Backbone:
């Protein structure tokens, strides 16, 4: 399972930060950052989700008000 985060879409509400500790506040830029992620396209970041963090990652995606966070499992988007 992996997460895909579109940082350009992020509006800095930081609800994801409260739900999963892989997201961090970047108040200087008014955006969240996804720790340990690889930039796969300009401003689009991906990383694997540890099994013990799957619930938190899914919840972070669900609370994002602009759908900047997507969760994929075996190539299929699940959140």
Residues:
């Amino acid at each position: 399972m992996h997460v895909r985060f579109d940082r350009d879409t992020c509006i800095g509400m930081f609800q994801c930060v409260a739900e999963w500790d892989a997201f961090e506040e970047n108040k200087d830029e008014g955006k969240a950052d996804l720790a340990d992620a690889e930039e796969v396209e300009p401003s689009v970041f991906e990383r694997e989700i540890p099994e013990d963090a799957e619930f938190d990652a899914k919840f972070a995606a669900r609370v994002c008000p602009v759908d900047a966070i997507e969760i994929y499992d075996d190539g299929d988007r699940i959140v």
User: Anything to note?
Assistant: The CA atoms of residues 58 and 75 lie 15 Å apart. The chain has a mean pLDDT of 98.
